[in-house]
Design a protein that fits this description.
By secondary structure, this protein is mostly helical. Helix content is 69%, strand content 0%. The chain has helices at residues 2-31, 38-45, 61-74, 82-97, 103-119.
Length: 123
């Protein structure tokens, strides 16, 4: 008799676990309205700059630098200087992309750093 009770109890416990696991999965997926990555949220909602959408996807390093400079100079939310804010946002994007950033885009963004220096007269 004792053996029978243990199996029925373990079945009940297993049923409870799967039910609660299903509930947890529903709750987690319902909560995920924010961007998946915190770095994505920082890029969109940062106090450093009001970035133009798709600025890091531009094909010309000069256009990237020009857009970052314009954003940095017109932003009223930045705490540091315009050059420092623009360069830190560009560096942040490069670092957070890490190994997933294609080489062509990485070289383009590294060239944009040099163009940013030129645009602010820091050569």
């Amino acid at each position: 008799m004792a053996h029978v009770r243990k199996t029925t109890q373990s079945r009940k416990t297993a049923a409870r676990r799967t039910t609660s696991a299903k509930r947890g999965a529903v709750r987690k997926s319902a909560r995920r309205a924010a961007p998946k990555r915190w770095s994505q949220r920082v890029t969109k909602q940062s106090d450093a700059l009001d970035l133009k959408r798709g600025v890091f996807k531009l094909t010309s390093p000069k256009r990237i630098a020009t857009s970052l400079k314009r954003s940095a100079e017109h932003s009223s939310r930045r705490k540091a200087g315009a050059y420092r804010s623009a360069l830190s946002m560009l560096t942040f994007y490069i670092n957070r992309a890490g190994k997933t950033l294609p080489k062509t885009q990485r070289t383009r963004l590294e060239k944009a750093k040099l163009e940013l220096k030129r645009a602010f007269g820091r050569e």
